[in-house]
Amino acid sequence: MTINPYLNFPGTTEAAFNFYKSVFGGEFAVLQRFKETPDGGKMSAELQNQIMHVALPIANGYTLMATDAPAEMGFSLKQGNNFYIAISPDSREEAVRLFNGLSAGGKVEMELQDTFWGAYYGSFTDKFGIGWMINYAKQ
To answer: Can you give the pTM of this predicted structure?
Structure first.
């Protein structure tokens, strides 16, 4: 299982991650724009160019990840709610166990489900206000 920080930005992910890349070095493992998603063609040109997901390996198996979280998509970012702890469990069963355990008493944003990017994913804020993402990527 891996655990990594997942950051949300109000349309500045690309600038932030180019900066982080200049400091940490390396290359992006993933850089996907909203226009590359199944509903990308329905978005404004500005939203289509924003970042859906970016991953920058930074050290010894740790990856810094992020997305743009635009207000047009219902996000209201402020310091304190602009990050998640992203867990990548080793099995679907472990994903369910972690999701159910950590989300108990909290607020589910997206139930665990199969996604267009090929993972079993869900997100929530726990009862202490911490955001979590569970993303089991089938091998």
So the answer is: 0.72
